[in-house]
Structure formats: structure tokens, C-alpha cells
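Example 3.2
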Amino acid sequence: MIGKLIALFTGSPLVAGDVVVTNDDEHDQVCQRGGNLISPHMQLLGRNPKLSAKAKTELSRGIADLDAVTAYNPKNWASFWMKGKGYQALGDQKAANAEFKVSFAIQKENPDVAREYAASCLQLGDGEEAISATQHAITLTPRDAGLHANLALALLISGKHEEARTAIVESLNMAPADRISLAVKKVIDEAASGKRRQPKTMADLGS
């Protein structure tokens, strides 16, 4: 126990299972530490940090911290979300999806939580779940062109070409010059016409 407490306050390396949260103060400290370990390595729009050996270690430690946080406070949706970002950075899409799913189940009022969960579903080819999550996000922010483009992608991956076209037209009506939406429209048109193989996951869109 002494070793665990020393590690808690010094930031000494820990392996999964070594971190235990027993009170609210520890919850807040470990939550902040875990977030600080994961945050520099998160994949964000326009940012895809290199996964170095140091990054892997820090991500694993951060996830272990947040595992302890959510064990103590299973309603901490932000920590589940951050764990998802950690697994995403490690390239473990299934684990990331599981964490994002829990975060979304708890937090239904934040469109970005729904957006991230939907995106992780698309990585795994679960288009129907991505459609549901994205439609929910759109009810929260109906004028978000990016969400309508995401819905178009989810519909495309589900093989619903006409519905995908409707969604991408809605996106382009809001943001006519948006390059991402224009690219999505091109992919939808190619898949619908047979010029492109029907994509089943996001990875297929690069082919």
C-alpha cells in the first residue's frame, strides 16, 4: 500500500491494476493525472501524434489511472471517454469503442461524445450503431454540418446510398465549400454508381 501511495504522488511507473482509488480526493488526483498522460497523444482533427515507446507507456499508465477512477466512480463519463481516446491512440479500436460506448450511455447531452462513439463504430464497420449515435447528436446540434457529413458516412457504410446522398446534401447546404463534405459526396456517388467497392469500414474509404 505504501508503494502505491508513493507512486500516486510521485508519478512513478505503474502497471494496470496497481492504481486504487478509495476516496474523492484520490479520485480527482488520479483522474487529472490519467488525463494528463493521455492528452498529449490523443488523435484529433489535424493531429495524429507518433506512437513512440514513451507514448505507449504513458498511454497505458493513463488508462490504468482512469480504470481506477471509473471503478470508484462508474458515472464518470469523461474518464470513459478519455480512456477511449487512449485506446484509440494505441490502435486498439475495439477497446476504444467499448469505452466510448459507456461514455455515451452515461452522457447523452454532449454531441461530441456521441460523435466520437459513432466514429469508433465506423472504424469497426458498425454502421447501424453509428447512424443511431449520429442522429442523436444531430438532435442536439442540428446545424452542425460535420455531423450531417458523418451521418452520410454511416449511411454509406450501411449500404444506404440514397439516404447517404440526402444527408450529404444537407451538410453541403450548410457548408457548400467544406472539403470534407465534398469528398464524402464523391465517395458516395462512386459507391452508388459501382465505380468504388462498397465500403464496410472507414479503412475501406482509403482504397
